C-alpha cells in the first residue's frame, strides 16, 4: 500500500534568500535517491517558512521495483577450456552470483565474447531506502553561509530545533546535528508555540494552518499580495509593484499581517528612488502611489503577527523610518555641495579591478570607446553629450548616498548632474548607461546613454577575459553574462549597425597598456576570440529560446558581426524552414557542401571559367546562378533576407538537374576543378544567409 512521506527540518529563523534554494536542494537530492533505488512515488510538494523546510511526497511505494540485469563475467576464452569445460573463472563467477555454471550465457560485445548471467535484483523496502535518502537529503542542502551550534560538527543555515520524518504513520530515524527525528512539529512562535503531534503526513499543512502558519510558499505569497492591495486601497493609494520585495517578505514571515504607516510629507522632495530604497532596503516596507503614479507619504510594513496595539506598532515602524529618511536627506544635501565634475578625480582612488586599474582609468577607456561607437553607428552628432556624460558617469560612486545604497548608482548621478547644472541629455545618459539592469528592465531611451552603456560593458568583457578571469560554470563574479546579454539587447533594440569584432578590437586596443604583462596559457585562445565566442554562446542561448536551435546554429555559423543583420537572417530563415519545399533545398545544399569539403581542399583557388563548361545543365545553372547572385546581393544590401532566400530557393531546379546530368568528378582535371570552383561559389551564395548544412532537414519538413 502506498504511503505519504513527510520530512520537516525546524530551525531558528532562516534568512529569506536561503529558503527557496534550500528547498530545491532538498527536493533534488531526495527524489534522485528515490529514483536510483527505483522507488516510485506521486506528486512532490515543498514547504518553507523562516522556521522550517519541508517536503511532502505522495504515494510512495512499499519497496523499490525489481529489476533484471545482465552481468558480464570473464571472457569466454578464460571461462571455458579448449574442450568447452568450465574453468575456475567460470565457476567463481557463477558462485558469486549464487548460480550454477549451466545458468551462464554468452554475450558478444565490441571487445569480444564474454560469459554473462541474468540476475534479478529485488527492490529494497521503502523504509530502508528512505532512511538513507533522508539522511543524504538533510545533509545535502548547500547554504551560502552555514553555522555550527553547541558542540556538534554538523553545520546548517541556523541551529536545528526539531525534525519530523514520517512514512505514513511510521516514524523514520533521521539525525541532524544533535537533533533526532520524531513526529512533533511546532506552529507560530508567538500565536501557537506549543508542540503539535502529527499522525500522518497528510495532516501536516492543515495542522500548521490551525497553528497560524501558512507553510506553502505560494499560498502565503498570494495571501500577502491580497492583503497588501487591500491595505493600500484602504489607505487611499495603490501598491507600488515590486515582485522581488514580495518574494523576500513572503519568506520573512509565517503569517503576513500588513500595517499602514506614514512619514513626513516634506521628504517627498527627495528623489522618489531614494525614498523607495530607504523603505525597501533596510525596512522591507512597501511604497504607495497616488492615482498619477506619484509617491504618497505612506508605506506598508508587514508583521509576522496580528497587531494588538496598532498605534504602538505604527510608532515603532515610523520611528525607524524617520531616522532612515533623516540620514537620506543628510546624504542628499551633503552630496550636492560638491559638483559631480569635482568628484571625477576621486575615482582614481577607487579600484575597479586589481589588474585593470581604477574606475578613473576605466572611465577614460570606455569614454574613448563610446566616442568610437558613436562614429561607427552614425551617431557622431551625439559625440559631445557622450563625452561629457561618460566623464561623469561613475562620479556618483564616491558620494555618500551611493555608498549607503549602491543600488542608486546612476540614479544619484542623474540627480546630482541636474543639481549641478548639467544639460538634461547628460543627466539622462548618466542614468541610462546602466540600463538594462536585468532581463525585464527597460532599454536606454536615447543614444548617448546606450552608447556609453555598450562601451562600459565591452570594456568589462574584454578586460576580464584578457586577464584570464572568464566566467566558469555558475561562477560569474563580474556578471559578464548579464553584460553580454545587455549589449545584445541594446544593439538590437536600438538597431545599431556596426562591426562587433571591430568594437572588440578597439576595446582591447584601449586596454593594451594594462595587458602588457599578462601571461597567457599555452594553447589558450586570444582574448578577441574568447570574447566573440562568448557572444556566440549568449546569442545561441538567447535566440534558442524563441527559434529552433539548428536554425540559430545555421545563422551563427556564417557570422554575427552585424548583430542586427544576423537577427534579420534568423527571422527570414525561420519562416522558410516551415515550408514543405525546404527539405529538398537543404538536401541540395548539403550535397554541394559535401563535395566542396571533400574535394575543394585539393583545388587551387580562382574563379570559375564558364568557357570550360561542356554540358548544357551546367551552363544553364551558371546562367541562373549569375542572375541570382546579383539579385541576392541587392536583397542582402537592403536587409531583405526573405527576398534573398527566395532567389536562392529558385536555384534548386537547376542545381538538381546539374547533379542529375553532370559528372562533377570528371576524369579531366581542369574540367573537374572548374566544376568544384563553381560549386564553391554556389555554396558561398547560400552562406550569405546561413549554413544550410546545419539545419536538420527532416525536422524542417515536419515543422
TrEMBL record:
SUPFAM superfamilies given in the database record: HD-domain/PDEase-like
Residue ranges occupied by any DALR anticodon binding domain in the UniProt entry: 587-688
Membrane-spanning segments: none
Position of the signal peptide: none
Stored Pfam families: DALR_1, tRNA_synt_2f
Keywords for this protein: Aminoacyl-tRNA synthetase, ATP-binding, Cytoplasm, Ligase, Nucleotide-binding, Protein biosynthesis
Enzyme Commission numbers on file: 6.1.1.14
GO biological process: arginyl-tRNA aminoacylation; glycyl-tRNA aminoacylation
Gene Ontology molecular functions: arginine-tRNA ligase activity; ATP binding; glycine-tRNA ligase activity
Subcellular location: Cytoplasm
One GO CC term, this protein: cytosol
Principal subcellular localisation of the protein: cytoplasm
Annotated catalysed reactions: tRNA(Gly) + glycine + ATP = glycyl-tRNA(Gly) + AMP + diphosphate
Family classification: Belongs to the class-II aminoacyl-tRNA synthetase family.
NCBIfam families: glyS
Subunit and interaction comment: Tetramer of two alpha and two beta subunits.
Identification of the protein by name: Glycine--tRNA ligase beta subunit
Organism lineage string: Bacteria, Pseudomonadati, Myxococcota, Myxococcia, Myxococcales
Amino acid at each position: 500500500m502506498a504511503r505519504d512521506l513527510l520530512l520537516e527540518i525546524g530551525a531558528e529563523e532562516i534568512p529569506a534568500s536561503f529558503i527557496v534554494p534550500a528547498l530545491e536542494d532538498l527536493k533534488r537530492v531526495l527524489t534522485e535517491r528515490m529514483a536510483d533505488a527505483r522507488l516510485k512515488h506521486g506528486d512532490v510538494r515543498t514547504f518553507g517558512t523562516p522556521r522550517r523546510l519541508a517536503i511532502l511526497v505522495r504515494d510512495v511505494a512499499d519497496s523499490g521495483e525489481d529489476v533484471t540485469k545482465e552481468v558480464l563475467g570473464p571472457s569466454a576464452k578464460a571461462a571455458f577450456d579448449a574442450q568447452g569445460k568450465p574453468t575456475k573463472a567460470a565457476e567463481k563467477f557463477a558462485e558469486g552470483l549464487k548460480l550454477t555454471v549451466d545458468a551462464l550465457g554468452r554475450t558478444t560485445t565490441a571487445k569480444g565474447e564474454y560469459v554473462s548471467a541474468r540476475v534479478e535484483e529485488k527492490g529494497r523496502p521503502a523504509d530502508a531506502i528512505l532512511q538513507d535518502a533522508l539522511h543524504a537529503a538533510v545533509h545535502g542542502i548547500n547554504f551560502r553561509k552555514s553555522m555550527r551550534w553547541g558542540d556538534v560538527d554538523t553545520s546548517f543555515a541556523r541551529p536545528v530545533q526539531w525534525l519530523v520524518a514520517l512514512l505514513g504513520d511510521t516514524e523514520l530515524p533521521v539525525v541532524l546535528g544533535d537533533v533526532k527525528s520524531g513526529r512533533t512539529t511546532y506552529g507560530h512562535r508567538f500565536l501557537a508555540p506549543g508542540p503539535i503531534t502529527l499522525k500522518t503526513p497528510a495532516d501536516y499543512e492543515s495542522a500548521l494552518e490551525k497553528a497560524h502558519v501558512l507553510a506553502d510558499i505560494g499560498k502565503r505569497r498570494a495571501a500577502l499580495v491580497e492583503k497588501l492591495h487591500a491595505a493600500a486601497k484602504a489607505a487611499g493609494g495603490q501598491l507600488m509593484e515590486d515582485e522581488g520585495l514580495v518574494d523576500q517578505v513572503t519568506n520573512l514571515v509565517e503569517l503576513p499581517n500588513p500595517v499602514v504607516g506614514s512619514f513626513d510629507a516634506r521628504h517627498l522632495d527627495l528623489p522618489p528612488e531614494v525614498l523607495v530604497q530607504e523603505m525597501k532596503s533596510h525596512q522591507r516596507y512597501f511604497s504607495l502611489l497616488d492615482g498619477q503614479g506619484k509617491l504618497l507619504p505612506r508605506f506598508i510594513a508587514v508583521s509576522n503577527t496580528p497587531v494588538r496595539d496598532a498605534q504602538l506598532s505604527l510608532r515603532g515602524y515610523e520611528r525607524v523610518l524617520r531616522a532612515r529618511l533623516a540620514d537620506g536627506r543628510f546624504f542628499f544635501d551633503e552630496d550636492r555641495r560638491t559638483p559631480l565634475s569635482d568628484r571625477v578625480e576621486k575615482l582614481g582612488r577607487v579600484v575597479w579591478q586589481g589588474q585593470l586599474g581604477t574606475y578613473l582609468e576605466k572611465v577614460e577607456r570606455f569614454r574613448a570607446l563610446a566616442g568610437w561607437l558613436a562614429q561607427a553607428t552614425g551617431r557622431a552628432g551625439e559625440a559631445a553629450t557622450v563625452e561629457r556624460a561618460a566623464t561623469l558617469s561613475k562620479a556618483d560612486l564616491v558620494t555618500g548616498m551611493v555608498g549607503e545604497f549602491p543600488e542608486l548608482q546612476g540614479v544619484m548621478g542623474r540627480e546630482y548632474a541636474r543639481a549641478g547644472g548639467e544639460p538634461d541629455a547628460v543627466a539622462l545618459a548618466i542614468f541610462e548607461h546602466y540600463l538594462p539592469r536585468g532581463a525585464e528592465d527597460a532599454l536606454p531611451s536615447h543614444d548617448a546613454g546606450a552608447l556609453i552603456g555598450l562601451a562600459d560593458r565591452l570594456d568589462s568583457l574584454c578586460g576580464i577575459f584578457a586577464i584570464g578571469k572568464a566566467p566558469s560554470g555558475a561562477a560569474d563574479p563580474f556578471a559578464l553574462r548579464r553584460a553580454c546579454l545587455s549589449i545584445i539587447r541594446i544593439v538590437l533594440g536600438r538597431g545599431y549597425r556596426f562591426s562587433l569584432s571591430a568594437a572588440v578590437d578597439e576595446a582591447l586596443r584601449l586596454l593594451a597598456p594594462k595587458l602588457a604583462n599578462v601571461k597567457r596559457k599555452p594553447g589558450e585562445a586570444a582574448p578577441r576570440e574568447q570574447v566573440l565566442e562568448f557572444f556566440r554562446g549568449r546569442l545561441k542561448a538567447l535566440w534558442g529560446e524563441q527559434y529552433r536551435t539548428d536554425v540559430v546554429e545555421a545563422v551563427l555559423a556564417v557570422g554575427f558581426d552585424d548583430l542586427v543583420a544576423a537577427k534579420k537572417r534568423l527571422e527570414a530563415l525561420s519562416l522558410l524552414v516551415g515550408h514543405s519545399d525546404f527539405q529538398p533545398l537543404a538536401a541540395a545544399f548539403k550535397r554541394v557542401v559535401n563535395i566542396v569539403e571533400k574535394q575543394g581542399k585539393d583545388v587551387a583557388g580562382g574563379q570559375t571559367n564558364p568557357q570550360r563548361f561542356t554540358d548544357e545543365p551546367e551552363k544553364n545553372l551558371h546562367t541562373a546562378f549569375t542572375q541570382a547572385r546579383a539579385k541576392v546581393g541587392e536583397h542582402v544590401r537592403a536587409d531583405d533576407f526573405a527576398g534573398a532566400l527566395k532567389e536562392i530557393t529558385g536555384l534548386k531546379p537547376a542545381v538538381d538537374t546539374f547533379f542529375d546530368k553532370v559528372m562533377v568528378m570528371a576524369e579531366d582535371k581542369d574540367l573537374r576543378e572548374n566544376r568544384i570552383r563553381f560549386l564553391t561559389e554556389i555554396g558561398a551564395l547560400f552562406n550569405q544567409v546561413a549554413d544550410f548544412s546545419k539545419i536538420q532537414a527532416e525536422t524542417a519538413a515536419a515543422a
